[in-house]
Amino acid sequence: MARYLATVLMGSVLLTGFAALADNSNVLTEEEKKAGFEMLFDGTSFEGWQQKGNWVLQDGAMFRERRGGGISYRAKKIPDDFELRFGWKVGEGANSGVYYRPGQYEYQILDNRKHGDRMNPRTSAASIYFCMAPSHDATKPAGEWNTGRIICKGTVIQHWVNGEKVIDFDYADPKWAFNVDLLRKRGGDLAARGAYLSLQDHGDPVWYRGIKLRTLGEADQLDRTPVTPAPVSEEALKAEQKKLEHILKKRAEREEARKAKQGKK
Question: What pLDDT, on a 0 to 100 scale, did the predictor assign at position 25?
């Protein structure tokens, strides 16, 4: 079993893999308390969260029960440099997402065995949606709990799933220029900061629990062991380009409509 290791080395903390308890339960371990984690959702209430009543408490988790939109944590914004831990589970064919910075910063939540987004690694579970593919599929089947983890420090973004690092992305590195541009064209800005944590309602059954957050300091060092994004097939690339063209067309139409409206004033 993958295990969380907080290795103190010359006054700094090395951030590596973890198993946030056997079930990523709604408590802070002593180690997490010392590291500075705080509980954003402990399975007992929606204190600090904003929603329209379509998310309910179910067996220590928040469950998207019906239509109504996403749910966001409004008590505080996400720090610039942070570590977020959470448990997630989906129904068959389900889709959701964790938004942690302004715009299109999304940790994709997906049933990787049934949902069509699995066909392109850049839209599969644990991807930075429509930007960066995970190195491999480390998810469990629909109906089983996964542990998610997001680490951001400076220009580095890491996504973890079930104790395995699947994305290690320094968007300032020129070799990722295509990925940066892809997200920009979709409408995202990787330099953006200061969002409220938001969990997506994509119309499907999804559960979250054990949501924990801490601010990272200068002494916190990242595990920068390289991981390589999964390759994207030619078929998936064609579908991606078609989707991108649709996004750009709709954006241009909205801009034209905006200018026309202003011209009538």
Answer: 83
Give me the count of residues in the chain. Answer: 265
pLDDT at 53 over 50: yes
| Structure-block tokens of residue 225 | 């062991």
Please give the DSSP secondary-structure letter assigned to residue 64. Answer: E
CA distance 126 to 158: 10
Q: How many CA atoms lie within 13 A of 35 on its CB side?
A: 28
List, as one string, the DSSP characters of 141-155.
PTTS-EEEEEEEETT
Please check the confidence at residue 92 and state whether its pLDDT lies above 50. yes
Q: How far apart are CA 71 and CA 211, in angstroms?
A: 13
Query: What is the Cα–Cα distance from 137 to 56, expressed in whole angstroms?
Result: 29
Q: What is the CATH number of domain 6-232?
A: 2.60.120.560
Task: Report the distance separating Cα 237 and Cα 197, nearest Å.
Answer: 30
Q: Which two tokens mark 119?
A: 């066909």
Query: What tokens appear for 10 in the block?
Result: 């010359």
Instruction: Determine which of 13-17, 90-94, 112-116, 122-126 has the lowest per-residue pLDDT on average.
Output: 13-17
